[in-house]
Amino acid sequence: MTAKTSSRHLRLRLSSLLLLGLCTAAVHAAPNFQLPVCGKSSTQWRVSNWSGHNPAHAADINWGSGDADLGKPVAAAAAGTVIKAAYDTNTGYGRNIVIDHGGGWRTRYAHLNAMSVSKGQTVRRGQKIGTVGKSSAKYTFAAHLHYEQIYNGSVRDPIINGVTVPYGGVRYFSAGDCNTSGGSATGTVRTNGANLNIRSGPSTNYSVVGSLANGSKVTIYCQTYGQSISGYYGTSSIWNRIGSGKWIPDAYTYTGSSGFVAPRC
């Protein structure tokens, strides 16, 4: 093999690895996390990712001072499945909820005054899951929400409404209304012009039961993992149920997020 040929093979291999990395990143991209509190308010919420916090990169979220936040509604930052809703007696978390959003992403909501969801329950983005409190088996402090965004077991600097709160930094966000809808989400079919096949299940191995034109609006009733598909929005194994026995790949659906936006099926 000549030096020229070897160099060409190296470039091709690097290009292939880069492409693979981009596809992997698309599958595991963070959900479109919203502010994890809800309810109309003329005052913004302060999100503090302060140096020295335990664990590092977790955030404290406040509306006012002292116990002004006590009892205010806490919301799911993204759709997912509750994998924990309990009072910790061996940590400082107190009443805390952990939600699995898929793709290695989880969120934790701690020191709650009350919890309104249970383990195994699916939740919508913006759904009320509890209220702000100051519960803890180890610490005494004013009411606030302790919030963590976790990827593959590691707490990350939180991204809220597309804005990163850096370690040691503070950002302000306005709360939106609590999501009290039936749990569905909306999407738009995006292809390179061709119609998109509707399948009877979350894989191309299932039969075709219809088709949708590019630009069609759909209601997504729930989502699940299925066959990995490379489409208009990259590569994803998420599939969207748009009706009874009707499925389309998320890789061809614009939802505003590369993660889950509706309850799990």
Describe this structure as you would to a colleague.
The chain is mainly β. It has two domains: 44-174, Glucose Permease (Domain IIA), CATH 2.70.70.10; 185-254, SH3 Domains (SH3 type barrels, Roll). Helix content is 9%, strand content 40%. The strands form six sheets. Strands 1, 2, 4, 5, 6, 8, 10, 11 and 14 form a nine-stranded antiparallel beta sheet that branches. Strands 3-9-7 form a three-stranded antiparallel beta sheet, with no helix packed on it. It has a three-stranded antiparallel beta sheet with strand order 18-15-22, with no helix packed on it. Strand 19 and strand 20 form a beta hairpin. It is elongated and about 60 Å long. The relative contact order is 0.18. Residues 1-29 form the signal peptide. InterPro entries: Cell_wall_metabolism_enzyme (IPR050570), Dup_hybrid_motif (IPR011055), M23ase_b-sheet_dom (IPR016047), SH3-like_bac-type (IPR003646). Keywords: Signal.
Global shape = elongated
From the coordinates shown, what is the CATH architecture of the largest domain?
Distorted Sandwich
Q: Find the structural class using helix and strand composition.
A: mainly beta
Note the run of SSEs as H and E: HEEEEEEEEEEEEEEEEEEEEEE
Overall pLDDT: 87
What is the CATH topology of the largest domain?
A: Glucose Permease (Domain IIA)
Kindly, what is the distance between the CA atoms of the first and last residues, rounded to a whole number of angstroms? 53 Å
Assigned CATH superfamily of the largest domain? Glucose Permease (Domain IIA)
The percent of residues in helical segments reads under 10%
Radius of gyration: 21 Å
Count of domains: 2
- The low-confidence runs, each spanning 5 or more residues with pLDDT under 50, are 14-27
Put simply, the count of helices is 1
Largest sheet: 9 strands, antiparallel
**What is the number of beta strands?**
22
Supply the CATH class of the largest domain: Mainly Beta
Give the percentage of residues in beta strands.
35-45%
GO molecular function, one term: metalloendopeptidase activity
Keywords: Signal
Organism: Marilutibacter maris
Protein name: SH3b domain-containing protein
